[in-house]
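Appendix B. One record, verbatim.
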Amino acid sequence: MKFTLFALLAAAGLGSLGTAEAKKLTHKEATAKLSAAGVKWESSGGCSDKNGASCTSFTGVREETIAGAITLKRACGCSVTITGGTETGHASGTYSHWNGYKLDFKKASGLNNYITNTFTRIADRGSDPQYKAKSGNTYVNEGNHWDVTFFTDGS
């Protein structure tokens, strides 16, 4: 039953699993989608170069990751600001920033309250509190920002 429901949702474009075959976006495509949904982003270096550690780049981000950020904003009903994307300087791995699965979000009271009151607290990642959504996406409080892994396009 679960597989059938998931298959129907996926076929309708309403759900997806993170896969290596997922569509990757250009920086321009990603920012257009984010802007249209009211999701903000900022860069400490004022740049968008994927190879610049002080930049915030969306080059090569998975389409599902951007959809997940938009879903998060809508579900939260609060302001969300992305501070980290696919740029260099983050930890490596399959489900990494570089591979388009992760985004960093600026901490703000509305977002903080939404994450901590909506999602399930799971084992800490190192010493950082971690929360998991029903979608499987994880939210890690890294002190000055939320490190979010989008395995699916749901929040």
